[in-house]
Amino acid sequence: MTEKDKRFPLNLSSVVDKPKAQRAGAPARVVATPQTATQNAARNVNLAPPRPAVSTTERISPRKEAIAVTTPARPAALVSDAVRSAMVARVAKQGVRDARVLAALESVPRHLFIEPALSSQAYIDASLPIGHHQTISQPYIVARMIEVMRANGNGGTLDRVLEIGTGCGYQAAVLSLVAREVYSIERIKPLHELAKTNLRPLRIPNIRLHYGDGMLGLPQAAPFDGIILAAAGLEVPQALLEQLSIGGRLVAPVGERRQVLQLIERTGKFEWTRTTLEDCHFVPLRSGVVA
Ligand code: SAH
């Protein structure tokens, strides 16, 4: 892995104010989708000219804003704020209360993380294929995991967070709006590249993407105030528990066919507590890397 691969300071995003989510939305419609290989939507985006990279340790101003993107030529209905607001309203109806998380969800253009053929389904509450037998997570579970991670003893302040399983980069983009620094690891090289391509036009300065085995964590960047696993293992790897800061929260799906969302809090140097939250369904956590 080159230094360039390890550090991924994306360019600065410009931001605009957005209204709060509307609370009127139709119930989520879950659509079964084929696990076809996908191309990312952002490939069709006219990328904005590159700007000089900025320090990724820079503090980002309050995150009520939306990420402005160079809007691709797409049917207006697909990119409409109203469609995304309706998705956020459904997520709120399903029980996510954290306004900061809902605002972040409102800000990230999910359709840009999905291949054009599936764009019309970008704002339904379902996981969708992103290729390599992997999926973009369902918006509800993305929001729920971040909400749980934010409910710390620190008023929701998150300095460094780690995501295991970048996939197409969607959750990393949402996380970038609630944490000062986001590290995200992906074990499948083409997906790591896909996430880079998807995130580049969004110019998010505080995300660093890594290609590697997330089960090992990222000791060189630890400790983390929050760790989110986007893939389910039979147990949470010990390395990740050790990379949590004291008071830090890890949220992970655990299990095989039946999976539950678990919250693990580090309460001391050698002490962790575990809480089981709800049933969930994720792709499996696997060791090693795929080139
Ligand atoms: N975070 C994504 C979800 C991607 S699906 C989103 O925003 O929607 C989960 C991802 O976890 C897959 O891309 C899979 O390849 C990855 N994964 C599984 N085991 C992993 C591991 N040990 N290290 C890093 N990534 C892993």
Written description of the protein model:
With 291 residues, the chain is of the alpha/beta class. The protein has a domain of 139 residues: Rossmann fold, CATH 3.40.50. The protein is built from eight helices and eleven strands. It has a seven-stranded mixed beta sheet with strand order 7-6-5-8-9-10-11. It has a two-stranded antiparallel ribbon with strand order 1-2. A two-stranded antiparallel ribbon has the order 3-4. Strand 8, helix 8 and strand 9 form a beta-alpha-beta unit. Helix 3 packs antiparallel against helix 4. The longest helix is centred in the first third of the chain and has 13 residues. The chain is globular and about 50 Å long. The N terminus is likely disordered. The structure holds S-adenosyl-L-homocysteine. The site of S-adenosyl-L-homocysteine has 25 residues, from strand 4, helix 6 and strand 6.
What's the topology here?
Elements: H1 3-6, E1 15-17, E2 65-67, H2 76-79, H3 81-93, H4 99-107, E3 128-131, E4 134-136, H5 139-150, E5 160-164, H6 170-175, E6 181-186, H7 189-199, E7 207-211, E8 224-229, H8 238-242, E9 244-255, E10 259-268, E11 271-280
Parallel strand pairs: 5-6, 5-8, 6-7, 8-9
Antiparallel strand pairs: 1-2, 3-4, 9-10, 10-11
Helix pairs in contact: 3-4
The chain binds S-adenosyl-L-homocysteine (SAH).
EC number: 2.1.1.77
Protein name: Protein-L-isoaspartate O-methyltransferase
Function: Catalyzes the methyl esterification of L-isoaspartyl residues in peptides and proteins that result from spontaneous decomposition of normal L-aspartyl and L-asparaginyl residues. It plays a role in the repair and/or degradation of damaged proteins.
